[in-house]
Amino acid sequence: MTWRPTTTAALAGLCLALSTAPLPAAADAPPRAADVSAHAAAANPPGTPPGACPTGTGYGPPLPASSVTATKIQGGFSFLEGPVWIADGGYLLFSDMAAGTGPYNVQPSTIRRFIPPATFDTFIANAGSNGLALSADGQQIVAATHDQRNVSSYRLSDRARDTVAANYQGRAFNSPNDVAVRSDGVVYFTDPNFQRGNRPDQMSGRTSVFRVAGGQVSLVDDRLRQPNGISLSPDGTTLYVGAYSENKIYKYAVQPDGSTGARSVFVNYIGGPDGGTIDCAGNVYWASGSDSLIHVYSPTGTQLGTIRSGTTGTTNVAFGGPDRQTLFVTSGPRNDSGLYSVRLNIPGYPY
């Protein structure tokens, strides 16, 4: 997701079902990050967040037609990103990023709330966020927070902030951008440099994908050019990452412990892949900033159709509504970014 551009506390009521080997002990090793999991026992391998996808359901075509258009709900925002549906409250949260300020040119960001059909308000001011996801227990949002160059969690009940991933082996991330959370609480996130501003590069020019499991931060891949959106398949066995500066969406096989195998190309994608999401049939929805389309692919990479929203700057998508068959879209130019929606045939992830 681009602008075209502490201490770590255990989170109450949470536990981690799976674990990975810890990083080697070192003087600059990162602090143990907060777990954001919900299951004491998860499926093997774990997949969608609880309740996101009905079981035993067969699905037909995801789109009502090969080309559909989303309806604008409201515009006039600065630059929208990272939508996530909160089922318990029946509302959508999303990040609204302003222009960079201060000596380091860092973009302020507010988490705003949309309560259907037409109510908007500020949910968390000065959140510093870009991409958002829902924790497995549904009690927190996990946020890619470029203000502190880390990944954070915000408790929905009182908006309290905690740290999920502070750094990698003592080095600050560039500007975490998007996040995906598995049902056992394993967190995956992208780290391009879009919101780093004038702060020093501590990643030696690399833009990467990371994993947080068992409170430890591990590297998934540091060979991607500006990794952006990130999503998991419903069964939790495939991780998708859009490489914005390569016009490709990659996929990685995911093991039960959350580790990943070699990457392969899912689609060669024209238009700069931004944020994405997955429906319960495993179809992949990816936003393109350059053509303002959401491109829809089958699990095998066959293009099934497109969804249009506005004329420029489509950034991200998330399923929501009472049955999660409404696709919410963030799209539009700077200072007139908007929220859109379209009704689809298949439910999907809330982020």
Structure description:
The protein is globular and about 50 Å long. The two termini are 13 Å apart. It is an all-beta fold and 351 residues long. The strands form six sheets. The protein has a five-stranded mixed sheet with strand order 1-22-21-20-19, with no helix packed on it. A four-stranded antiparallel sheet has the order 2-25-24-23, with no helix packed on it. It has strands at residues 67-69, 71-77, 80-86, 91-97, 109-115, 119-124, 129-134, 140-145, 150-155, 161-165, 179-181, 187-191, 208-213, 216-221, 227-232, 238-243, 248-254, 260-268, 273-278, 284-288, 293-297, 303-308, 316-320, 326-331, 337-343.
SSE succession? EEEEEEEEEEEEEEEEEEEEEEEEE
Secondary structure tally: strands: 25
Overall 3D form: globular
Helix segment tally? 0
Mean pLDDT: 88
Which strand order do you get reading across the main beta sheet? 1-22-21-20-19
Biggest β-sheet, characterized?
5 strands, mixed
Helical fraction equals: under 10%
Write the layout of secondary structure elements.
Blueprint: E1 67-69, E2 71-77, E3 80-86, E4 91-97, E5 109-115, E6 119-124, E7 129-134, E8 140-145, E9 150-155, E10 161-165, E11 179-181, E12 187-191, E13 208-213, E14 216-221, E15 227-232, E16 238-243, E17 248-254, E18 260-268, E19 273-278, E20 284-288, E21 293-297, E22 303-308, E23 316-320, E24 326-331, E25 337-343
Parallel strand pairs: 1-22
Antiparallel strand pairs: 2-25, 3-4, 4-5, 5-6, 7-8, 8-9, 9-10, 11-12, 12-13, 13-14, 15-16, 16-17, 17-18, 19-20, 20-21, 21-22, 23-24, 24-25
